[in-house]
């Protein structure tokens, strides 16, 4: 694992980049949005995945600085795309620590105000279901405040926490991202398929938009459509792409 000091230097030296993975409506074929995923272009170690540096940041203030870099980079990229006539919402992953930092709302608002070209609904925040559960009342207040400034939420890795009717009622998050664990094995494992069906039933009962992660093949997509899940993300649709490659991918896809 990399040290905190090395991560801080990497941030200052511009060694981090965002890749963007498409989310599509599998019924209509329309591009629904993009998820920003961080990578570290480490000069000595090559491209590092988040698992090799995000855990080091956990509960450290530097995770807020990195989180702000992610949001600002995604907004800047959206602004460039929009000037080129490519206007698609982007979701960024946000840590529980960052979400609950004292001046989160004010700082988010000022980042958005630096991009008046982007309309409301351009930015979505993905928060892990498990971390939302740990601080339910604070997170649900932030989710409501964000709705007021046009920023929506998704519960990430949904199904890995203690999904219950009671807490979904309290957490007005717009959409649910079904964890890829249940999606990836749905074709082979009847238990995972049963869990997936139950999650989709829960989402629909609460009239929540639901998106499946880990759509690794056309067969996954077809079965998901049969189960009433239209939105998907996964290697079977596209791997995460460099920002410059996204508009070309979208043109070829549609
Ligand atoms: O892209 P990849 O599969 O390597 O991502 C692994 C994990 O890292 C995922 O759970 C993802 O949510 C998380 N992750 C990716 N990018 C970011 C980011 O910019 N911020 C945070 N907090 N997590 C991220
Ligand atoms: O934030 P989240 O935990 O959803 O992170 C998504 C991660 O899953 C990304 O790092 C991305 O690289 C990875 N991923 C996206 N699609 C697929 C897929 O179809 N299969 C697998 N195994 N991983 C995927
Ligand atoms: Mn995510
Ligand atoms: Na996820």
TrEMBL record:
It comes from the Bacteria. This is Diguanylate cyclase.
């Amino acid at each position: 694992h990399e040290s905190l000091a090395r991560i801080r230097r990497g941030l200052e030296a511009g060694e981090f980049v965002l890749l963007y993975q498409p989310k599509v409506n599998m019924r209509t074929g329309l591009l629904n949005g993009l998820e920003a995923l961080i990578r570290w272009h480490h000069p000595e170690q090559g491209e590092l995945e988040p698992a090799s540096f995000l855990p080091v940041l956990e509960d450290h203030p530097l995770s807020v600085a990195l989180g702000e870099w992610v949001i600002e980079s995604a907004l800047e990229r959206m602004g460039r795309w929009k000037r080129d006539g490519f206007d698609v919402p982007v979701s960024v992953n946000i840590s529980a620590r960052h979400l609950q930092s004292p001046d989160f709302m004010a700082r988010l608002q000022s980042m958005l105000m630096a991009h008046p070209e982007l309309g409301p609904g351009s930015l979505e925040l993905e928060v892990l279901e498990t971390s939302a559960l740990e601080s339910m009342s604070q997170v649900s207040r932030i989710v409501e405040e964000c709705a007021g400034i046009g920023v929506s939420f998704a519960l990430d890795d949904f199904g890995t926490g203690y999904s219950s009717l009671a807490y979904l009622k309290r957490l007005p998050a717009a959409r649910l991202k079904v964890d890829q664990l249940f999606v990836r094995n749905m074709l082979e494992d009847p238990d995972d398929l049963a869990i997936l069906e139950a999650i989709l039933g829960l989402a629909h009962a609460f009239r929540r938009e639901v998106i499946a992660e880990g759509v690794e093949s056309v067969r996954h997509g077809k079965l998901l459509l049969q189960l009433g899940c239209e939105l998907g993300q996964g290697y079977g649709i596209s791997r995460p792409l460099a920002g410059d490659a996204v508009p070309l991918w979208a043109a070829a896809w549609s």
